[in-house]
Write a sequence for this structure.
């Protein structure tokens, strides 16, 4: 099972932001995309989710995502942007939107849907907020509610744009543990991140992007030993072999 890119070009208007010759995201793995602001990280996620038109090919198990009906595509790929809106609905209603690809028009949620929603809310610790309006909760709580929604979607791949940016450190680590748990169940996690130590600690694979192109890719250990990270963001990383440290990697000049 793989989500494959081949000669993918995408951008805004007539401008090309990303130009990816080829890459394969594997199921059951966390892949972090790292690069400077404006390097094309978010554009890549939007192209995979067909929010932007693209040239080339983006496939899941050989099927072109842009040619899939919306509900089928949503079962393959779930997407969560960095900027989230305080929508006018309860937290539980928001999370229940993750089940819409599985429903016929007008059909109510089943017991199985309710179980999946409850499980997702419990995983990200928003079970006690179900009755609250999304507009009334904190930014961090809202981020976790949206994460519960994409978990409830039960897609084979989850695209997350800076998912830890609005979370305190406790919930950042909790989120990454949840993503590890989902990966163990076969879900492919593709996320962008500015937090390099956190990304290197929890990812199976790292993809470095600069000026819309792939600079390097590999395991966190491989990336930390090469110069691609420095070329991508201007700093390197070193592995720390001390169990008392929070993360396995630290930034270096």
């Amino acid at each position: 099972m793989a989500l494959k890119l081949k000669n993918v070009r995408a951008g805004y208007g007539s401008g090309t932001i990303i130009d990816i010759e080829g890459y394969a995201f594997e199921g059951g793995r966390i892949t972090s995309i790292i690069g400077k602001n404006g390097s094309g990280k978010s554009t890549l996620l939007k192209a995979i989710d067909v929010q932007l038109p693209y040239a080339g090919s983006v496939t899941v198990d050989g099927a072109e995502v842009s040619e899939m009906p919306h509900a089928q595509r949503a079962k393959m790929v779930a997407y969560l942007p960095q900027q989230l809106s305080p929508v006018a609905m309860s937290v539980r209603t928001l999370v229940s939107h993750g089940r819409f690809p599985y429903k016929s028009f007008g059909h109510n949620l089943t017991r199985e849907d309710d179980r999946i929603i409850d499980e997702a809310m419990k995983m990200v610790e928003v079970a006690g907020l179900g009755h609250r309006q999304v507009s009334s909760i904190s930014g961090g709580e809202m981020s976790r509610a949206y994460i519960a929604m994409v978990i409830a979607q039960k897609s084979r791949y989850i695209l997350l744009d800076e998912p830890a940016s609005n979370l305190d450190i406790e919930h950042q680590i909790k989120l990454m543990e949840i993503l590890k748990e989902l990966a163990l169940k076969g879900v492919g996690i593709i996320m962008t991140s500015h937090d390099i130590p956190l990304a290197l600690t929890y990812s199976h694979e790292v993809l470095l992007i600069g000026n819309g192109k792939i600079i390097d890719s590999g395991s966190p250990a491989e990336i930390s030993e090469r110069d691609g990270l420095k070329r991508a963001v201007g700093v390197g990383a070193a592995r720390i072999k001390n169990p008392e440290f929070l993360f396995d990697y630290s930034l270096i000049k």
User: Anything to note?
Assistant: Residues 2-252 form a domain with the Rossmann fold fold (CATH 3.40.50.300). The first helix runs from residue 41 to 48. DSSP finds nine helices and twelve strands in the chain. The mean pLDDT is 95.
